[in-house]
Amino acid sequence: MPLDRDAAHYLFGVMRLKQGAEVLLFNGADGEWRATVAEAGKRGGTLEPQRRTRPQTMPPDLWLMFAPVKKARTDFIVEKAVEMGVRRLLPVATEFTNSERIRQDRLQSHAREAAEQCGATFVPEVADLAKLPDVLSAWPEDRRLMFCDEAQAGGDGPAARPFAEAGGPGPWAVLIGPEGGFSDRERARLHAMEAAHVASLGPRILRADTAAVAAITLWQLRFGD
Ligand code: SAM
Questions:
Q1: Residue whose CB lies within 8 A of the most ligand 1 atoms, among 207, 209, 216, 218, for a mutation test
Q2: 30-88: per-residue pLDDT in tens?
Q3: CA 144, 150, 155, 159 torsion: positive or negative?
Q4: pLDDT value at 149 more than 90
Q5: Atom of ligand 1 nearest to the CA of 152
Q6: Mean per-residue pLDDT, 4-19
Q7: Ligand 1 closest atom vs CA 180
Q8: What are φ and ψ of residue 44, in 5° steps?
Q9: pLDDT digits (tens, 9 = 90+) for 21-33
Q10: Is the CB of 151 under 6 A from ligand 1?
Q11: CA distance 106 to 60
């Protein structure tokens, strides 16, 4: 199996592996494999797969839709979402989103590194930044949406039991807003969506990165395997 330049640099330049060394491989479709280094070069090399060590596993069918925040906190959201088990990450631009652009390739690399770190054999796709109204207009009929609405925090909002009335398992997405929260217009649209389940994450307004971790935790507790 040929290696590209980046993989060769990591294995032979950074990790200093030599011919005959053993590595673990995964491609997101065929589980984890033990392989040996057949050729090691500065710009390339080859691996020889030996045997499958673990079957392919998939995280549950949960998407995380989130408005990008500051760089380090967006990286944190991607990393933790992969560790905690989501199948797809969708960055969305909302009315109050600060970052108009993201480095999708960077976030995808973070997702791969997080999967490697936690021993997952599946790397969730990080989609390119899309506008929230466009995503909602094409919303899949069978996927429920946990709309984490900071306006539900405190006051008369329900306690942090976002899935108490949520029915059975099935495809879900969690939506987390930006630092400035959702606009009234966005809130009205989301409240009117049949697929949306309006959720409180408790009495305090959480930072967006904390809210993402809390929402995924609560979803996993209710529906995860
Ligand atoms: N200014 C802070 C920051 O810098 O991250 C708070 C941002 S909070 C408005 C970001 C998002 O987290 C909200 O749009 C919402 O999706 C979610 N969130 C935070 N606290 C929440 C709560 N108690 N209930 C529901 N969602 C919450």
A1: 207
A2: 888 999 999 998 888 999 999 999 888 899 999 999 999 999 999 999 999 999 999 99
A3: positive
A4: yes
A5: 24
A6: 89
A7: 9
A8: -175, -170
A9: 999 988 878 888 9
A10: no
A11: 24
C-alpha distance across the termini of the chain, in Å: 33
Question: Among all chains, which residue has been given the structure tokens 């995964």?
Answer: 26
CA distances from 87 to 16, 57, 111, 114, 127 (A): 33, 11, 11, 13, 11
Residue 121 CB less than 6 A away from ligand 1: no
CA of 129 to the centre of ligand 1 (A): 20
Question: Which among 5-19, 40-54, 130-144, 153-167 has the top mean pLDDT?
Answer: 130-144
Ordered structural domains, the chain, with CATH: 2-54 (2.40.240.20), 62-223 (3.40.1280.10)
Minimum-distance ligand 1 atom for the alpha carbon of 203: 23
Task: Give residue 71's identity as a one-letter amino acid code.
Answer: K
Average pLDDT over residues 92-114: 93
High-pLDDT (> 90) share of the chain, %:
69
CA–CA distance from 75 to each of 30, 69, 71, 110, 113 (Å)?
A: 27, 9, 6, 7, 11
For residue 176, the ligand 1 atom closest to its alpha carbon is 16
Q: Compute the distance from residue 202 Cα to the ligand 1 centre, in Å.
A: 10
Q: What is the ipTM of this complex?
A: 0.97
Best of 150, 198, 217 to mutate for ligand 1, by most ligand atoms within 8 A of CB? Answer: 150
What pTM, to 2 d.p., does this model score? 0.88
Q: What is the mean pLDDT of residues 200-220?
A: 94
Partners of 198 in the β-ladder: 147
Q: Indicate which residue's Cα is closest to atom 10 of ligand 1.
A: 208
